[in-house]
Prior knowledge:
Layout: E1 5-9, E2 24-28, H1 29-38, E3 41-44, E4 50-53, E5 59-60, H2 71-79, H3 99-110
Antiparallel strand pairs: 1-2, 3-4, 4-5
Amino acid sequence: ASRFIDGHHIKHWADGGKTKLDNLVLLCRHHHRKVHEDGFTVQLNTTGDLRFYTPAGEEIPFTVQLPEPDCELEAINRQQGLEIDSNTVFSWSGDAMDYGMAIDGLEQHRWH
């Protein structure tokens, strides 16, 4: 997995787009190439949401494929008093996410 990301101009600078945060989206190198070389597009709608489109102009829906639950891991979590549910992510203390640590953990889990 690549840890490199690129700032992509939603409205290209050659078309008058500014290099400002409200005109930039972070894309991994693979998807940045898809936009520039394969005809995919990124647009910002009137509510400020990003929309991604195929070269044929079809919107790519936002979906997240969650892994099947690991019953053994759930049992271990419960034994330790951890109840992980759909609200767990909202118990954030304000600290910045350590993306490197998260990716490393996912990579280690993938190979075991």
